[in-house]
Write a structure and sequence with these properties.
This protein is an alpha+beta fold. The protein has 9 helices and 6 strands. The protein has helices at 2-19, 42-47, 101-113, 127-143, 148-155, 191-199, 214-217, 231-240, 244-248; strands at 87-89, 95-97, 118-122, 172-177, 205-207, 225-228. The chain is globular, with a radius of gyration of 21 Å.
């Protein structure tokens, strides 16, 4: 009889938790998040616990301290199904990997101290958000006369196929000048873009898609797209003028 009472009590508690569970926040717009991320424990940020995705393409030792920051995501190496990075807010309701967000905030703050007016226009995206962006690009190209197959091929050079975008990884951010927010080659001529290209490595970031690496990265020149890899790797990549694929010795 006592055992039955205990069982009934526990069942009641479980039912109560289900009934009175709090609904998640509804809409976080550009980030594509369906709910606001929980506050990230400082131990996670320090130790770099990255869930399941540590070695896209088997390139890195998953026990390495910096493996989470050096994951390669591109047309040949997709984000693992179900991967969700630990997230923290940057600004304007955009989110970034919590283990590197302070480096990003510091970079933005230091540039602003010099009179630059940065505007973060994209960061972490869910696969659903990436899918919507990609399909919209395909539709736009088809409206301009492209056949569907050619439209998809062309779309992938400027909007990564869902699951192959660094934005799905949580370590990429798009930064433009507030007074010139168009995503084209002219962005590279802004004072903000020039400062970022010269100083990003100090904060562990690289210009991910340089002007002469499209044949390797599969992505056109994007002077607004920066990726966190850690200071040591960032310094070498930027000094040598190479891309992440070349640094890792992979395609």
């Amino acid at each position: 009889m006592f055992g039955f009472c205990v069982f009934t009590f526990l069942l009641g508690v479980l039912f109560g938790r289900i009934v009175f569970a709090k609904d998640p926040d509804a809409d976080l717009e550009e980030s594509g998040l369906k709910e606001r991320p929980e506050v990230i424990d400082s131990e996670i940020q320090e130790n770099g616990s990255a869930g399941n995705l540590l070695t896209a393409g088997g390139l890195l030792d998953e026990n390495s301290e910096d493996s989470w920051s050096m994951v390669l995501v591109n047309r040949n190496h997709a984000v693992e199904d179900g991967y969700e990075p630990p997230l923290a807010e940057i600004e304007n309701n955009y989110y970034f990997d919590a283990r590197a967000v302070e480096y990003l905030k510091k970079m933005l703050a230091d540039g602003r101290k010099e009179g630059l007016d940065f505007w973060v226009c994209s960061a972490y995206r869910t696969i659903e958000k990436q899918t919507n962006l990609f399909e919209q690009q395909v539709r736009d190209l088809m409206a301009r006369g492209y056949g569907e197959e050619k439209a998809r091929e062309e779309a992938a050079t400027s909007v990564a196929y869902p699951g192959t975008s660094e934005h799905n990884l949580g370590l990429a951010v798009d930064i433009v000048a507030r007074d010139y927010q168009i995503l084209d080659d002219k962005q590279a001529d802004t004072a903000e873009a020039r400062w970022l290209e010269e100083n990003c490595w100090k904060y562990g970031f690289i210009l991910r898609y340089p002007t002469d690496k499209t044949d390797i990265t599969g992505i056109i020149f994007e002077p607004w797209h920066y990726r966190y890899v850690g200071e040591e790797a960032a310094r070498e990549i930027m000094e040598r003028g190479i891309c992440l694929e070349e640094y890792l010795g992979s395609d």
